[in-house]
Write a structure and sequence with these properties.
- By secondary structure, the protein is α+β, with helices and mostly antiparallel strands.
- 54% of the residues lie in helices and 16% in strands.
- It has helices at residues 7-14, 18-74, 79-85, 119-126, 163-213, 227-277, 284-314, 327-337, 359-376, 431-441, and strands at residues 93-98, 103-106, 131-137, 140-149, 154-161, 322-326, 344-347, 354-358, 380-387, 393-399, 445-450, 456-462.
- α2 runs antiparallel to α5, α6 (227-277) runs antiparallel to α7 (284-314) and α8 packs across α9 (359-376).
- It has a 5-stranded antiparallel beta sheet, sandwiched between helices. Strands 7-9-10-12-11 form a 5-stranded mixed beta sheet, with helices on one face.
- The protein is rod-shaped.
- The two termini are 44 Å apart.
- The chain contains 10 helices and 12 strands.
Length: 467
């Protein structure tokens, strides 16, 4: 049955890559640092601007209060004219309250009066408490200064706008926000570039591991000047040495065993043939036993031959002997030479039939696929020679069997693997593994699918070698 992806694997596949996480962490750290710095800068600038503006206005208010005390003290009846003539901050207003008369005189009565100030603030000031308070007037910020003048029993109010400070702070705020975003983006770009250098050693490890996986067991990493990276290099090279030694030992063992078995198997085969020549002298029971022995000896002989071939493939013995061949006609000749001449060969290569390939590997691939169909699936129904969308060559063998289950399609090319339909067959379990190894040696791959007739379709994909 099909294996559904587990939640852990699914979540792992959704996790961003290491380089992405480095860029995100670098950008996030920069963003937090710049935001904190911007907040501190804005707060300091705001305090400076507000303090500077209000201190200047308060000095102006104190100077006007002194002038009011002098002029009103000389003539209280001129209080209205005195307030009107005062010089205040641009956009500012003045209000004078005479205590004994309980009268208010506004510099601009049509614009601003004591009614525009907080009532409690006015009462406290008249009671003798000087102070400062922020107020809003017509949706604009103002600062009101109340100054008690006991010498003339009066209270002086001066209100001045601070919207220019607010506008300046708004501009600074917008600039800081834009700067934060720009610096964060720039930090992300810098993090992306730096992460490339940081991850370069890991890429070299990945490339070396991929090269080893493709069969180049002698691949090693170059020494690094960085002591931390040198530990990684030493560990990787040590692991590669151990893996190479173990693989080569196992390959030598399989090859030696296969070679050692050839002589006794040959002798057994000869002895069986002698006995079969005198089978008429044996009883029926002994003849059946002899037939079983003959079948098993042939199976054993085939297994040893396949093991020897796999040993040569593992050791990369022999070089590819590429030559110009007409692929479709070669396939027909191979099929006819090995007793499969009745299998239909279909080709759509046309004029592109001439390719540059190793004839011997093509023959081994095709013969093993045909033998596999004969032994396990009632024979091959047709052979197709075609190309895919990438112009790779396709060598396809369809059979008459029940097909290969989806759960078995990946492991059927493993050594000694058997599908459900071939549990009791006489094959060695190595034929499809040899097909896959030869396909890899040609730079391609092999897989199994379902044929239109319902049987198995074995497909070998081979990169085109132009003649």
């Amino acid at each position: 049955m099909d294996l559904a992806p587990t939640p852990a694997l699914h979540n792992r596949s959704l996790r961003p890559g290491l380089r992405t996480r480095i860029v995100v962490y670098f950008s996030l750290a920069t963003f937090i640092g710049v935001v904190i710095l911007s907040i501190v800068t804005f707060a300091a600038t705001r305090n400076y601007l507000v303090d500077n503006a209000t201190s200047s206005a308060r000095e102006q208010a104190l100077a006007n209060a002194q002038l009011v005390r002098t002029l009103v003290g000389a003539s209280r009846t001129d209080a209205g004219e005195v307030v009107t003539s005062l010089r205040t901050q641009p956009g500012g207003y003045a209000v004078l309250h005479l205590g004994s008369e309980n009268l208010f005189y506004a510099q601009a009565p049509l614009r601003f009066t004591q009614s525009n100030l907080p009532a409690q603030f006015v009462r406290d000031a008249i009671a003798g408490t000087s102070g400062v308070q922020r107020v809003n007037f017509l949706d604009s910020p103002y600062e009101a200064v109340a100054i008690d003048i006991p010498a003339i029993d009066a209270t002086y109010f001066e209100i001045f706008p601070i919207d220019d400070v607010a506008d300046t702070l708004g501009t600074i705020r917008s600039t800081l926000i834009a700067a934060v975003l720009a610096i964060t983006v720039a930090a992300g770009g810098i993090g992306f570039l730096l992460s490339g250098n940081v991850l370069q050693p890991l890429r070299r490890v990945t490339d070396a591991a991929s090269t080893i996986a493709r069969g180049s067991l002698n691949t090693r990493l170059e020494p690094e000047s960085d002591p931390d990276l040198q530990q990684l290099v030493a560990s990787f090279n040590g692991m590669a040495d151990a893996v190479q030694e173990r693989i080569e030992r196992e390959e030598r063992f399989a090859s030696d065993v296969s070679h050692e078995l050839r002589s006794p198997i040959t002798s057994l085969g000869a002895a069986v043939e002698v006995l079969k020549g005198r089978a008429d002298e044996l009883s029926e029971r002994n003849r059946k036993a002899l037939d079983i022995i003959a079948i098993q000896v042939r199976r054993f002989d085939r297994t040893v031959l396949d093991l020897l071939e796999l040993s040569r493939l593992d050791a990369r013995a022999g070089q590819d002997n590429k030559e110009e061949i007409h692929l479709a006609s070669l396939v027909e000749r191979i099929a006819a030479r090995h007793g499969y001449g009745d299998v239909l060969v279909i080709s759509d290569l046309g004029e592109r039939d001439l390719v540059l390939l190793d004839r011997r590997r093509i023959e081994r691939i095709l013969l093993n696929l045909l033998d596999n169909a004969r032994d396990h699936a009632g024979g091959a129904s047709e052979i197709i020679v075609s190309t895919d969308d990438d112009e790779n060559l396709l060598l396809i063998v369809d059979d008459n069997g029940p097909g290969v289950g989806v759960s078995e399609r990946l492991r059927i090319f493993e050594r000694f693997a058997r599908g459900t339909a071939s549990r009791n067959s006489v094959g060695s379990g190595l034929g499809l593994a040899i097909v896959a190894e030869h396909a890899v040696a040609l730079g391609g791959t092999a897989y199994v699918d379902t044929s239109p007739s319902g049987g198995a379709r074995f497909v070998v994909v081979i990169p085109r070698g132009e003649a």
